[in-house]
Automatic annotation (TrEMBL), chain B:
The keyword Nuclease does not apply. It comes from Alteriqipengyuania abyssalis. Coiled coil: none annotated. It comes from the Bacteria. Keywords: Iron. It holds the Pfam family FeoA. InterPro entries: Fe-transptr_FeoA-like (IPR007167), FeoA (IPR052713), FeoA_core_dom (IPR038157), Transcriptional_repressor_C (IPR008988). Residues 1-78 form the Ferrous iron transporter FeoA-like domain. This is Ferrous iron transport protein A.
Length: 614, 79
């Protein structure tokens, strides 16, 4: 399509580039990976005022083309048209933070030296004004020799002007004069000169951010606030989501009942009610929890608090041979290990990065929430243990804590053995605080929810269907248990030999097989198993939680929870680890050590619980 | 005096940076963030629980988190 122009957005990290991108494209974004690397390629289509179609690409933030991380390397290659399979952009939109021009203009020099048609978006001018800066965009435009548009992405200011400027620049492709080549020091000097000329007034307004940092980065109060915040997040995930989850659960139940009433009894009806609706439905109910967790993560990122959290965590991470930079990938891993492992690209040191990848699956991802959720609901009474803290939430918190402690211990061991190396550094910009834009958060949440629903619709659906087939054939004779006779039952009998010593029953063995595809399948697998095994209508109509509480002993349930703290099974995580480490060696090691730990700790939990008479 | 011993709230100018003492990747990043002789810095925050690892340094209009080892490579003079 020769009519479509390709526009790449680039700039320093924290320039407000993604907010600008969101305002340009709205929610119509396509997120994919650049081939061969796991850097996310975010693109969106829009129509310019003159009717031209435009594809906008949001490139990873970069301080310089002289790459020190895989992200920056992608940015350089795409901009220079060197990225295989990615056409060279026609126009560049260079996003600069108006409040930090002296710094952002250094990279700007490098971008402009390419001689490509460029438009500068002078972003966050409102924040610069709040900080006491007055800027003259005309001066900047003259100094840089390209159009400068003042924008406030979060408030949509300047977006239409930016679109118009892009449309106009289209006519001038390739007309920029050659610029002198400069080295890093010259670029910085030039940046300083231009910034001085552009900013015509500076008042030393005491920045709100400084005052916030005095509290949030206080050596004693800061870590406490972070700990409380993390605790609140996990309480919220459990408490706020409950009514929504119940509603979804009731919806799935009602749908099953309706299908049952409307369709004649047949194998197809059983497939729909026992396989599809029971299976997929039992996973969808955890969508609210995943959304709430991501809501907090996105807000922490958008406000700039996430970098402070990394700062506060650096000391602890240094203790196990990592740095605060690992905190962000690890926190993302609480939602899902895949974006978490992908976020490790920002860690420059290869051994640091490898260690972070290897421990990322120990962070309790949202796929484990369904498993924890069902078991906690079934076995842990909803009691108040005082101060408004629920016992269920507390147990959940302990499970998360167990994963974190395990991750730290594993990191310490790895850094002393397999990934031995010098202590790594920690250099990180702490961005200014910002009020998050609701639209940006909403777009982020929508994208996460969509990824989850797509998984539910594909991987989880397929795994559930396959399991249902394995469970339903061959059909049992009257008087026999369907599960005993089925193919799946026979597979589980074999597995059970290994898993029985750690207190697992056959239904668990059975559920763990399809759960290799994705952890949360364990829940739908259990739902499917018990739905098929249900002898009467009443038992079938019961929720999974109440079924489990009747059929499992408490030690078994606790052992199952312990297993899932380590739970290595997730094909996508293994695949992404393989891609990130360029081979099978490290993913194989990861799966091996996780299985070993899962087995050992499930065993310890089971036998301890039995010994305590639980 | 080096940067890591600067007290919170105090300002100073960078006299020199011992680039050889830093891993090349760290040096590259610090240069990209504007650490250079002649630039004024101030100590914004010390790390958790009274430790100085990491520290947060104000440079230009940015706040940058650094570890003690990196800060120790930066020699200061009076601003």
């Amino acid at each position: 399509m020769s009519d479509t122009i390709r526009v790449a957005l680039l700039g320093n990290p924290n320039a407000g580039k993604s907010a600008l991108f969101n305002k340009l494209t709205g929610a119509r974004q396509k997120i994919a990976n650049y081939p061969g690397v796991t850097v996310e390629r975010v693109a969106g289509m829009l129509t310019l005022p003159d009717g031209t179609q435009m594809e906008a690409i949001d490139l990873p933030g970069a301080y310089a083309f002289d790459a020190s991380s895989p992200d920056e390397d992608v940015t350089r290659k795409v901009v220079q048209g060197e990225f295989p399979g990615e056409a060279e952009p026609d126009i560049l939109v260079l996003v600069l933070d108006a409040g930090n021009l002296e710094q952002h203009l250094v990279f700007a020099q490098e971008v402009l030296a390419l001689g490509k048609p460029t438009i500068v978006a002078l972003n966050m001018v409102d924040m610069a004004e709040r900080d006491g800066l007055k800027l003259d965009a005309t001066v900047l435009s003259q100094a840089l020799g390209v159009p400068v548009i003042e924008t406030v992405a979060v408030r949509r200011r300047g977006i239409e002007a930016l679109k118009a400027a892009i449309a106009e620049a289209r006519g001038q492709v390739g007309t920029l004069a050659d610029r002198p080549k400069m080295d890093a020091t010259e670029r910085r000097l030039e940046a300083r000169t231009i910034a001085k000329a552009t900013v015509f007034q500076t008042s030393r307004a005491r920045r709100i951010g400084d005052r916030l940092d005095n509290v949030l980065l206080n050596p004693w109060i800061g870590p406490l606030i972070l700990l409380v915040l993390l605790f609140v997040i996990f309480q919220a995930v459990f408490a706020w989501a409950a009514p929504l989850s119940d509603a979804l659960d009731a919806g799935a139940g009602a749908l099953g009942e309706w299908v049952k009433a409307e369709m004649p009894a047949s194998i197809l009806r059983d497939f729909l009610t026992e396989g599809v609706i029971a299976g997929v439905g039992s996973v969808i109910v955890f969508l609210p929890q995943i959304i709430i967790l991501f809501l907090f993560i996105l807000i922490m990122e958008a406000t700039g608090y996430m970098a402070r959290a990394a700062f506060l965590m650096d000391r602890l991470m240094a203790g196990v041979g990592l740095s605060g930079r690992s905190f962000i990938p690890l926190l993302s891993s609480f939602a899902c290990a895949i974006p978490g492992i992908m976020a490790t690209r920002s860690i420059a040191d290869p051994k640091d990065r490898l260690t972070t990848i290897l421990i990322a699956p120990l962070m309790t991802c949202s796929a484990r929430l369904p498993v924890y959720g069902v078991l906690i609901a079934a076995f842990i009474p909803a009691r108040d243990v005082g101060m408004g803290i629920g016992l269920q939430g507390l147990v959940m918190f302990c499970l998360y804590l167990a994963g974190i402690v395990a991750a730290l211990v594993v990191a310490l061991v790895l850094r002393g053995t397999l990934t031995k190396g010098e202590a790594t550094g920690f250099i990180m910009e702490l961005p200014r605080y910002q009020l998050p834009s609701i639209a940006d958060i909403a777009i982020g949440l929508w994208q996460r929810a969509w990824v989850f629903l797509r998984r539910a619709g594909t991987i989880i659906f397929s795994a559930t269907v396959i399991l249902w087939v394995l469970l339903s054939f061959p059909q049992a004779e009257p008087g026999e248990s369907q599960v005993d006779v089925s193919i799946a039952g026979q597979i589980a009998d074999g597995l059970n030999v290994v898993l029985e010593p750690i207190g697992f029953n056959r239904e668990i063995s059975l559920a763990l097989v399809p759960a290799m595809a994705a952890r949360e399948v364990a829940v739908s697998a259990l739902a499917t198993t018990y739905a098929i095994d249900a002898t009467d209508e009443e038992a079938e109509a019961e929720g999974l939680a109440s079924t489990l509480s009747k059929r499992w002993s408490l030690p078994t349930a606790l052992a199952f929870l312990a297993w899932f703290v380590f739970a290595p099974q997730c094909l996508s995580t293994i695949a992404v680890a393989r891609r990130e480490t360029n081979g099978w060696k490290w993913p194989a090691f990861m799966v091996g050590y996780l299985f070993a730990l899962a087995y050992i700790f499930a065993g310890i939990t089971y036998w301890s619980a039995v010994a305590l008479g639980l | 005096m080096t940067l890591e011993s600067l007290q919170p709230g105090h300002r100073a100018r960078i006299a020199s940076i011992d680039w050889d003492a830093l891993p090349p990747a760290d040096g590259k990043r610090m240069r990209a963030l504007g650490f250079e002789p002649g630039v004024e810095v101030s100590m914004a925050h010390h790390g958790v629980f009274g430790g100085r690892d990491p520290v947060a340094v104000s440079i230009g209009r940015m706040t940058i988190a650094l570890r003690k080892v990196q800060a120790a490579a930066i020699s200061l003079e009076q601003a």
